[in-house]
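Q: For a teaching session next week I want to show students how multiple molecules come together into a single three-dimensional assembly. I've collected the sequence lines for a complex. Could you give me the predicted structure tokens for the whole thing so I can convert them for display?
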Amino acid sequence: MTRHDVDRTRPCWSCGHDAGVGVLCAHCQIVQPVAEGADPFAVFGLEPHFDIDTPRLERAYVDAQRRLHPDGFATRPERERRLAAAQAVAINAAYASIKAPLARARTLLRQHGRDAGEASTETIDDPAVLMEAMETREALAEAADADAVADLGRRAAEAVRACQDRLVAAFNTDNLDAAARLTLRLAYLDKLAHEIKRKRLALVGTAA
Amino acid sequence: MSLLQIHEPGQTPAPHAKGAAVGIDLGTTNSVVAVAGADGIDVIRDARGNGLLPSVVAYTDDGVLVGEPARRVLLDQPDRVVASVKRLMGRAATDLATLGGTLPYDIEPGKAGGMVRLRVGGMVLSPVEVSADILRALRARAEAALGHTVDRAVVTVPAYFDDAARAATKDAARLAGLEVLRLVNEPTAAALAYGLDKGAEGLFAVFDLGGGTFDVSLLMMEKGVFRVIATGGDAALGGDDFDRKVAELFLAERKGAVAEALDPSDAKLILATSRLAKECLTWQDRGEWAVEIGGRMTRHTLDTARLEAAIGPLVDRAIAITERTLIEADVTPADVAGVVLVGGSTRVPLVRRRVAQLFGREPLADINPDEVVAVGAAIQAELLTVGGGALLLDVTPLSLGLETMGGLVERIVERNVPIPLAQAQEFTTFQDGQTAMAIHVVQGERETVDACRSLARFELRGIPPMVAGSAHIRVTFAIDADGLLTVTAREQTSGVESEVAVKPSYGLGDGEIERMLRDSIVNARDDMARRMMVEARVDAERLAAAVAGAVAADGDLLDEDERSAIEGALVAVRAAIAGVDREAILVATEALERTTAPFAQRRMDRNIGRALTGVSVDRLAAVIDTPAAR
Ligand SMILES: [Zn+2]
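A: Of course. Below is the structure for the complete assembly, covering every listed component.
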């Protein structure tokens, strides 16, 4: 039983009995409509922490798709098929909002009523971060071969990991100001890692 | 049917009441149909044991021919034959690769934009209709083999097929009278076959180089769960392109002062010769070939070195796409537990060598690379209709977005994201009092609209006039488990809504589909007649086989006259089976039943006698019953 299930019960659309709190009716096991605004952590039976148990998330995700993926409803009536598809979509959306660390940090900040810094107009004002980003970009522009780019990629990955460790600490101590700042930094690092990856992709097939 | 009443329990299945669900690989070069049977998956084969149906259709005066017979027509009447139609699904004429400026298709001119139309045998056909003819032939093959109606199918598509090509494939199945249970990506289907048949576990790469398309997928296979991690490919890279390279070599060798003008028929013939030349080099080092254009015949040799030099750059392209897919998934070749080869073009030795080199291991091909996709599709058809423990989780192959100002793409759905999904983004008006907004949906990885594929254009109208920037227009992209897209736009404050299932730009309009379906109602009557004929034929085959078996086992119960009467009736049945006249088949079958009735009675008596003298009835049945023709 997951947490978002607890706060509401509704009548089942199919049998009319109390459907209970799950995605399937407690009485007849027929799939129910998506509960709006569910906590994505609770969808997978997790506490809303930054430091989640990733293998557990993966298991819960697969279990949820096992129950609700449209393939399991191919021979069911139209309405059930539609509801199951909507549930599968909701599961994928919940998964996407907490799987990657940056998405997870933003989801947590939003849950605490914080601006998650997603607007593209949002800029960073930490000069150290700006400096570092500029240096990496320069190094990336100069990197001529795949090895040099791969090396930058490793360094970027390390920086991402370090930032995530600090985010764990910030969220664990409820230091939301620090968490918001670090999330912004993580977004920058993510973008850099993405640029490095693009350069790696562009270099494929060019080496003799 | 008295003879058939003696069965070993559980041996002869009752004919299914409802249509069966099959798996279909609708390929560029060959198509395959398979079905889940009692002992696993059966690829349905023709009388000569061939599971591959060449994806070649001939429109002759005597009707539509599909497969090997159509390929034979290619030699005499190339203008009536369509091959590699899959490359045209959801495509415009400008998307196609030519041979020296000539296409091996006769394209109906004057149709700017939209899916191409083909001129063939005096008709104008859409690629969807030609594909439907291939699907009809596969369906007929399955029905003849199974002895009952087939009306549902899992149909595979290249993972890298865009939305227009997917929608076109689904339309073709509809025209062929098949309900599509699911469109499954070809590499995913192949992985399903390896995972379930061979128990493969871990991170797998599927390298699928077919006749016209290339896909590479990375999948995590664990305890019956098949999760696609990343997919890449090129919807216009395959064996056909290898053939084109060989044809270009041959054409260059034909010494002539002027460049030869090819017509589509010349192009079809030289490409067919080039394909043979390529295929021969799979098992020998060189071959010699003749090319005749405009009455002038030339001879050409092709050896492995020249072939590999010619196709090398194409193989490089596939390998580079594979490397990029690994990088995108943050995976190194060493992380991959196994590499699966799929598609006829992976038989080309150079392809195998390069794949082995990249991954540092020999790739797997222990399930026939030409059949593995259909096997996977049949597994999925069974999962969907009967159930089973496996779960397939696939991803979007290409990013989706909208055109914004300056011809740029605003990306809404990223590639390699699990489906089904829904993703929304808000837009606003940029002029005061703007009441409509044009929405242009594109698919692809590039930043500019003209470098992406245009999927659909529609307009959201009736927005209440507001100051620029104050409307909230929410555009939602929904992708279902078939990978098909629906786009909805909604102005949040007024609730004005507009929705398109993405099709118009390159797919067929709904009107066209309706017309084709109407046309096919005429065909449906033929279909019905054909199906009844097929069923009569299957029954007759069963009876004939059972009689032959009974005569072999208990022939001593017959006198000379009876024996020759039965043999005469058997010959008549076999002759009728060879034809297509249902009445004749029924008459001959009835005659055989009448002739064998006394014999059947005597066998019953003898069997009872045997049972009484202590012979196990089960063993008896095994002796008496002849396996029904399946
Ligand atoms: Zn209920």
